[in-house]
Amino acid sequence: MKIKTDFLIKKLKQIEKKRREHEPLVKDLMSSDVLTIGSEDTVVSAAEKMLEHRIHSLIVTDRKKPVGIVGAYDLLLVMSISDYFDRSTKVKDVMVKDLLTVKPEDSPTTALEKMIEYNIRRLAVVEDEKLVGILSIIDLVLGFVDLSKINLNLKQE
């Protein structure tokens, strides 16, 4: 868990630096290293990828274009209680096809409102139909945190 914590602390410091320059936008909070999976890949390979990278969802792509999202919960339901599942089940058969997105220039408030309205934890960040990032609820939390009011034993940089 230390690696994940270090990553979050580093990200929080980067956001705080941006906040001093201007009001943060989605592009300041998002993760640009997005892990994806092809729509023709199997749900087993999706689960393995999520476990390997310790993440909870993957953006589904078809010819490098984002077409959906598949989450750990989706896989859990399909793999554990569905008569539909076998090891060759394709991601495209279980993914959420209505991919909700935001733009890099959108405000964090806009993104948060969309997450609340649709009861989701992640949004794909898309610009000119190209996937440029992913924004999670934790990214938004970090964006709204006042670093001076929390004690993380951080050294000033």
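(the above was protein one; protein two follows)
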Amino acid sequence: MIRFGRLVAVALLGVGAITASAGTARAAAPILIKSCTVEKPKPFSHMANGTRIEWVNLGNKTASTVTFLVGYRNAQQHYLRRTDDVGSFAPHATINHVLSLYNDVTYAGAQTTQCVPTRVKWAGGTIWVAPSH
């Protein structure tokens, strides 16, 4: 009985450590997503009109390229695609861009199923990559 109790305690400790490390990895991301939505179609169209991503560069360096992984589900399919926002993004700046992502699918509402930064290329050439993407 004591062995079983120790085994359970070790298992719970392991799960806690994994959870804490996953939380730390996500907290360390240099990009904060404020909003991520699919744009409404243009008049007389059923096709989405791109994807609006509002985000903040939390880093202390200028970013030159930020790659996002964005999920969207319409009536026919569940999509998961990557897109790049390219430019010169100052430290701590808030960026609000409409990117040409999902402008080729039937619009089914603004909500995305996922929106995460997966890669950041800094102006100096160094690269940050998300741990699980």
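Reviewer note on protein two: The chain has one domain: 30-129.
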